[in-house]
Amino acid sequence: QLDLVESGGGLVQAGGSLGLSCLASGRTFKSHDMAWFRQAPGKEREFVGAITWNGYRTHYADSVKGRFTISRDNAKNSIYLQMDSLKPEDTAVYYCAAVRLDRGFPSRVPESYGTWGQGTQVTVSS
After folding, report:
1. What sign results for the dihedral spanned by CA atoms 14, 18, 24, 30?
2. Beta carbons within 8 Å of 49's beta carbon, 6+ residues apart
3. Is 101 helix (H, G, I), strand (E, B) or coil?
4. Which of 63, 69, 119, 121 shows a CA-CA span of 20 to 30 A to 43?
5. pLDDT for 61-70, tens place per residue?
6. pLDDT tens digit string along 68-102?
7. Which sign does the torsion angle of CA 112, 115, 118, 124 carry?
């Protein structure tokens, strides 16, 4: 069983930076491609970016490409989301998720992910 816990959310001004972490517990973490999603009030959950199990490949939504960076450290059972040049429209609850092992990379739909963290709030003020 895999459990995920996000941390690092908070309030930041537009143009600023924030880093999120996702700590996994469970022996299968290293086998999973991982992703970050976000959900703003009244909106559907949105794909942010994904990283392969070995960290060799990443894939981003167009809305964050060039501003956000995903990385992982399998020795620490963690993935990270570095967010730079933040905009008010980046305000959302951010979730990390582990892909179902029968799905290819990258998968941009929430249904492809079988394990989710509880989320962490990111608020960007204008």
Report:
1. positive
2. 35, 36, 58, 59, 60, 61, 64, 68, 70, 81
3. coil
4. 69
5. 999 999 999 9
6. 999 999 999 999 999 999 999 999 999 999 999 88
7. negative
